Amino acid sequence: MGGCVSSSSSSTCSSRSNGEKVSHECLGISMFGRKRIRRSLSDPAAALQHLSSIPNRIFTNGKSRTSCIFTQQGRKGINQDAMIVWEDFMAEDVTFCGVFDGHGPHGHLVARKVRDALPLKLKALLQSFESNRNENPQVEAVDPDKDQVMSDKVDTQWREAFLQSYKAMDKELRSQPNLDCFCSGSTAVTLIKQGSNLYMGYIGDSRAILASKDENDSMVAVQLTVDLKPDLPKEAERIKQCKGRVFALQDEPEVHRVWLPYDNAPGLAMARAFGDFCVKEYGVISMPEFSHRVLTERDQFIVLASDGVWDVLSNEEVVDIVSSAPTRSSAARILVDSAALEWKTKYPTSKMDDCAVVCLFLDGHMDMESDNEEQCFSSATLQRNHSDNAAESDDGHSSEPSLQRNFTVRSGEENDAYKRVVAEAEANQETVVTEDQKWSGLEGVTRVNSLVQLPRFSEERPGP
Question: What EC number(s) are associated with this protein in UniProt (predicted)?
Answer without folding.
Answer: 3.1.3.16
